[in-house]
Amino acid sequence: MNIEQEKIADCFMVGCWQLDDRSWKALSELDVERTIDTYLAWGIKRFDTADIYGRSEKLLGKCLKGRSDCEIWTKAVFFGAVPTLQQIQYKIDSSLRNLQRDHLDCVQIHWHDPSLDFASTFEIFNQYLAKGKISQLGVTNFNTTMLKRALEYAPIKTHQVQYNLIDRRVETSIQALCLQHKIPLIPYGSLAGGFLSNKFLGVKIPPAEGEHCRGFYYNHMIAKHGGWSAVQELLQTMAEVGQKYEMTIAQVALNWLKQQPGVGTIILGLTENRQQIKTDLEALQKPLERLDIQKLSQRSQALFQQVGDVYSYERH
């Protein structure tokens, strides 16, 4: 692997929600090991999971045991009341045990209810930072007001948000705040659950919501932002741009996203499809020209509405 390939691989992280067999197709442990090995062979050494992703942490811990060259980022997810010290300790200890690590590379905090005060929670996480049990603290799905408050309590190093050519709520205000504080945006949903791909160009009706999480989660997102007909118009424009560069629609989506201000590592949902892994990584071999970036942005802006701050309608 040459230096250029290593640089490209470093732009991506594997999203491992797909290892939660309660929500996605169940993969055997052998298939998971083979898939992880494929990503490693391509030079991708960062993996993203969460304490609520079912068996995801345990599978990653098993597959990456002893791999100090790999990073596993997890999330501490908080719904309902402000957690106690014991509840936070349980989360951290469980993640350490599941991932088979003596420290956590990065813990990203998801705080569902903005009306609850998270000062005491961040104080406890600061103690874990000081002890070396957590190397880095991030947040996920914090709106602008929440992130401003969080920065008063802890050294926030990353912010994981949904960001793609359909959902650009990040551009309303959180992007500017992250740029101001040099906090990289870590986009998930970069391909809108796979809808931003050639597979769905010309498809008149989106898949039923019961198909898998793509249908449930991303159909809802599309409905909130402009509907399926708008997606089809966007896909047509993306296909036209892709033809110019001999790129797929998914490659165009990733290339556009990487060129947005403040974007750091892009999360790619885990897939067994080796060809898809290859084409995703090849998306950044040649940057789209500025005029084509503008064309895509303007088309997206004309087709989709942006409803509030990041993670606005998802809280309800």
Mean pLDDT across residues: 95
Structural class: alpha/beta
The portion of residues forming beta strands comes to: 5-15%
User: How far do the termini sit from each other?
Assistant: 46 Å
Largest sheet: 8 strands, parallel
pLDDT < 50 runs, ≥5 residues: none
| Annotation, overall tally of beta strands | 8
How many DSSP H or I helices? Answer: 12
Q: What helical percentage do the residues reach? A: 40-55%
Rg result? 19 Å
Report on this model:
- Helix 4 (85-99) links the parallel strand 3 and strand 4.
- This protein has an eight-stranded parallel beta sheet.
- The mean pLDDT is 95.
- It is of the alpha/beta class.
- The protein is 43% helix and 13% strand.
- The chain has helices at 3-9, 29-41, 56-63, 85-99, 119-131, 144-153, 174-180, 213-225, 228-245, 249-258, 274-281, 290-303; strands at 12-15, 46-48, 71-78, 106-111, 137-140, 156-162, 185-188, 266-269.
- It is globular, with a radius of gyration of 19 Å.
- The N and C termini lie far apart (46 Å).
